[in-house]
Design brief:
Helix content: 25-40%
Number of strands: 21
Strand content: 15-25%
Shape: globular
Largest sheet: 9 strands, mixed
Number of helices: 18
Structural class: alpha+beta
Radius of gyration: 28 Å
Length: 627
């Protein structure tokens, strides 16, 4: 007999518990609105292993939200993260009466409904919420809003929460929305509600709380000015997510490095690193050394190096925290088999160059040093916290555990495949030393230095913005756009990792000059090989030639090609939605530091692949003129 029971449980995908509906994020489900509570609400979680990422983020480990088997949701108890109803002010779309919903009114897997109307319509959440730059968020005090500047003493002193939310057909703006007191008749329209000091003028200060906090949590005296924002606005929630491609630990030849990673990933490392001269340091060092099977002197040496790095390196520039260094070393290994494992399988691919190749293909192959097909990768993405109103403001980052230092972070692991392309470093250096290229990128460096996105971008570019980074980043975008036509994946399913980080003078780390385009799925099998196939000869050469040809044209030219500054803070040049930009999920730095000119060149700037394009055009012209 078929079970026709309707599953009314509210469900989200596991990956969404990290972004976009991680701690502090608002989610709309079937006309209801919820916010994700902090990590303290997680009853349990599946352990996610990522020692390198744990070391960077200075946590003991990661946990993923437990997955519910397909079709079993209605038969299991709630074991996932907690989502709290927010905003609590709701209104009936029929009678327009407002209700302040409290936890005692909740019924399991049932939406709130109006008790005044005969057909009990579902209540709808109010559109606006109150937030501040320190990450606090709360309901707007609509009772105060309705009674502000009301005529008569009795109206101004009315404490009744019987409100109505009505609309007027006479206008299409905020002045058409109105909140009135049903008891005393006082009321105000919502005109000016989004003004910066709208709440401050009405005597409302920041609540200093988060929506999931209860009476037992301490309220912070926040001095930030609260602002009114639509709950679905993009600046309500900016998750801070970190990712790492998991690569095998070093083998016998690098035992010290493997032991160091084991020590710095230990659960007690943070405590002893934070107070290496504290009274408990000796005991902790002894315990870590015994647990990791290393000498105590080795642990003390690592503590000394860590102290030097913390004191000498600015925030975000510690090379030990740069995961790209290890990933670059793995992808460029001369023996791919030695760095392969069950979760990281790579193989070097030949471009299949031939003596009779056309000049354009020969010139293209000369600029490519290595191609690697990653038939299986494992990516871990972890949520460190979030900000509101302004992105990349790490000074105001709200942790996933706001009341204590987080011991673990919410994370998700995905499996997939990818293509790695490394360009010839000698050719890159010669191109970068061109005065026109240096001057062109120098203007972008100046704009970056004055941008609010500088901190986030520097984590990828290093202390200096190199021309190779902008060029390789643009190449990655063009490659994703081209592969979306040829590999079977849409652009939003593909991601990039750009390896072009600059290092401080005297750094022992090798120069980077490559891109990795990959896709990852949430199951244990990963994806089906369409991307790796495009990395095999002759497909990759054809793909690269076609993307260079398409990069020459944009429907917005000449406005796009002649641009001297696009996007926020003028961090892009010849790059727009019509030719280069990608979905936000695909780009690692938010669609900035892009310029087609550095790929294809123009009259002032030499493009890295300009000789390839010129040869291809000559070949095309010769083919047309041939009898």
């Amino acid at each position: 007999m078929k079970d026709n029971t309707k599953d009314n449980r509210r469900k989200i995908r596991r990956t969404q518990t990290v972004s976009p509906f991680g701690v502090g994020g608002i989610i709309d489900l079937r006309g209801e609105s919820f916010v994700a509570a902090d990590a303290r609400s997680w009853r349990r979680g599946e352990v996610v292993e990522s020692p390198r990422l744990a070391r960077k983020l200075d946590v003991a480990g990661f946990r993923a939200a437990p997955a519910i088997p397909a079709g079993k949701a209605q038969y299991v108890s709630r074991i996932g993260p907690v989502y709290v109803r927010f905003p609590r002010w709701l209104f009936c779309p029929k009678c327009r009466r407002m209700t302040y919903w409290i936890a005692e009114h909740e019924e399991r897997d049932k939406a709130p409904r109006c008790g005044r109307c005969s057909d009990s319509p579902q209540l709808a959440p109010m559109r606006f919420v109150q937030v501040c730059r320190d990450g606090h968020m709360a309901d707007i005090d609509w009772r105060r809003w309705a009674h502000w500047q009301a005529e008569g003493h009795e109206r101004r002193q009315c404490q009744v929460r019987q409100l109505t939310f009505t609309t007027s057909p006479d206008s299409s703006g905020l002045d058409a929305l109105r909140v009135d007191c049903f008891a005393c008749g006082a009321g105000q329209t919502l005109e000016g509600v989004t003004d910066k000091n709208a709440l401050l003028r009405r005597g409302t200060s920041c609540s200093g709380t988060h929506p999931w906090q209860d009476a037992g949590d301490e309220r912070i005296d926040c001095e930030e000015t609260p602002r009114v924002i639509q709950r679905g606005a993009s600046n309500v929630y900016f998750p801070v997510v970190h990712s790492a491609i998991e690569i095998p630990l070093p083998e016998d030849g690098d035992e010290d490095e493997a032991d160091a990673l084991k020590v710095t990933s230990h659960a007690l490392w943070r405590r002893v690193a934070g107070a290496p001269d504290g009274p408990a340091a000796g005991t902790l060092i002894e315990y870590i050394a015994e647990d990791c099977e290393v000498d105590e002197e080795f642990v003390r040496k690592l503590l000394h190096e860590d102290a030097i790095d913390r004191s000498a390196a600015p925030a975000g520039t510690n090379a030990k925290d740069d995961l790209s260094i290890g990933e670059w070393a793995a992808f460029t290994s001369h023996d791919p088999e030695s760095v392969s494992s069950r979760e990281f399988r790579i193989a070097q691919v030949s471009l299949d160059s031939k003596p009779d190749d056309p000049p354009s293909v020969s010139l293209l192959h000369q600029r490519i040093e290595r191609v690697v097909a990653a038939t299986r990768i494992r990516e871990v993405r972890a949520l460190e916290g979030f900000t509101r109103i302004e992105a990349d403001d790490r000074d105001r980052l709200v942790s996933v555990n706001p009341v204590a230092r987080a011991e673990w972070l919410p994370a998700v692991e995905s499996y997939g495949e990818g293509i790695f392309i490394a360009l010839d470093d000698d050719a890159l250096r010669a191109w970068e030393n061109s005065p026109g290229v240096r001057d062109w990128v120098g203007h972008m460096e100046t704009n970056l230095g004055s941008s609010f996105q500088e901190n986030r971008c520097r984590e990828r570019t290093g202390p200096r913005l190199l021309p190779r980074y902008v060029m390789l980043h643009t190449l990655a975008h063009q490659l994703i756009r081209q592969l979306s036509y040829e590999s079977g994946y849409n652009a939003a399913s593909l991601r990039e990792r750009v390896y072009a980080r600059s290092h401080a003078p005297g750094s022992p780390h090798p120069a980077q000059s490559g891109v990795f385009v990959y896709t990852a799925a949430g199951d244990s099998e990963g994806t089906l090989g369409g991307l790796v196939r495009q990395g095999q000869p002759p497909h990759l050469t054809d793909t690269l030639v076609r993307l260079l040809e398409s990069a020459q044209w944009c429907s917005q030219d000449p406005l796009c090609s002649d641009s001297t500054g696009r996007s926020l803070a003028n961090l892009n040049r010849a790059a727009c939605h019509a030719c280069t930009l990608l979905p936000e999920t695909s780009c690692e730095i938010g669609n900035v530091l892009l310029d087609r000119t550095l790929l294809i060149g123009d009259g002032q700037v030499e493009g890295f692949f300009r000789p390839v394009i010129a040869a291809a055009l000559e070949e095309s012209a010769a083919a047309v003129e041939a009898p």
